[in-house]
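Run log, item B.
One chain of 187 residues. Sequence copied directly from the ordering sheet:
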Amino acid sequence: MNLKEQIENYKPYNEQEEKDKEIMLKYINTFDDVLTRNNEFGHFTASSWAVNKQRTKVLMIYHNIYKSWAWTGGHADGEENLLNVAIRELKEETGVKNVRVLNNDIFSLEIICVDGHVKRGKYVSSHVHLNVTYLLEVDEEEILKIKEDENSGVKWVNIEDVEKVTDEKWVRENIYRKENEKLKNII
């Protein structure tokens, strides 16, 4: 199933996801370069809500650009299989080797505003990330490693503390809170 079909089949959790799903589908139908950063207005990214086996903790990184604790994830960079992107980014950003996919289906959808910033010495204008999130599991005993060009910390955060550690208000209130609510509904 291609990305458009996956998004079409996704059942939104709330009003935010319903509206974001609608806009993502319009975006796919309007632009032919939504999987690459060549589309400077917005492009697809994939994130993971990476939990431990007990579903009591989330694996997070301290993101250097956002200056906040965040979930793992990154740009599709041409890859249509966003589950593979989420897994790749999780491994790259945390150093973990083994990742268990808890569900091949999309866990959540969100459109995230990204402020202009400098990345690798080059200015990147403000744009949106059309983000697809997957639910993944990692063994807490895995050795964690910082990816210095992107983050300056990697740690497990108790589910109830996730909203406390991030400085991104909209993300905290509209994404992380939602992810934890959804997680509680499936455990």
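Observations after the first pass:
- The domain at 3-186 is CATH 3.90.79.10 (Nucleoside Triphosphate Pyrophosphohydrolase).
- The chain has a mean pLDDT of 95.
Flagged for discussion on Thursday.
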